[in-house]
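Hi all, a correction to my earlier message: I attached the wrong file for Aminoglycoside phosphotransferase domain-containing protein. Here's the right sequence:
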Amino acid sequence: MTGDVELQDVNTMAINNTPMRRFLTLLALKTLSRFYKWDGPCVPISSSLIVKKGSDIHLTEAATMAFVAARTKIPVPRSYLKQMLSASFCNYEAFHEWLREGLGPEVKPPFVDDDEWTDIKYMIAMQEQEWAMPVFTHGDLNPFNIMVRDGNIEAIIDWEFSGWYPRYWEYTSVWLGNKTRIAWQRMAEKFIDPWPNELRMETIRQKWWGDF
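and the right structure:
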């Protein structure tokens, strides 16, 4: 998702989490949820309202859905309780250095052989290149997050991993996050710009540092 969009300081975002709204939400979870079938963090409290709860739920999702709904035609669920989210990195250099835990190309770690070190240095060189402006990214596009009815997309859900990322992030996330969904990986290239060199870079990083 690209475009000339002003990057807002998230600390200026409106908050809509009043004590009354929180109380009514908790009350609904205690009472109304028993009338619906559910499994996992998404709990129905009416025919049109779902509460997503849990200790691992990210506040990013509510802010993202509001952003997407205001600036695009992508169908997303409406969010009724919103909170602030702090930004993490001020530039690409800091982001990529964090991803590789500060490792530089100067000294080879003792547990890495020569071929592996060649790959890691390639990854670092790729990360340290000049990058274009970040693009807004879902971060977890897969068939389970795209709701379809009668051949039409009804909604795109699960925005908790979304944010402003390097241009390659959506593509590499689709490939590396869906390793068993080969058909989906290839289908995604029809609507996401492919970044094969960046995919190699991320494949090397995830081999040694994991997905984050």
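Sorry for the mix-up. Helices lie at 19-31, 60-71, 92-99, 114-127, 169-176, 182-188, 196-209.
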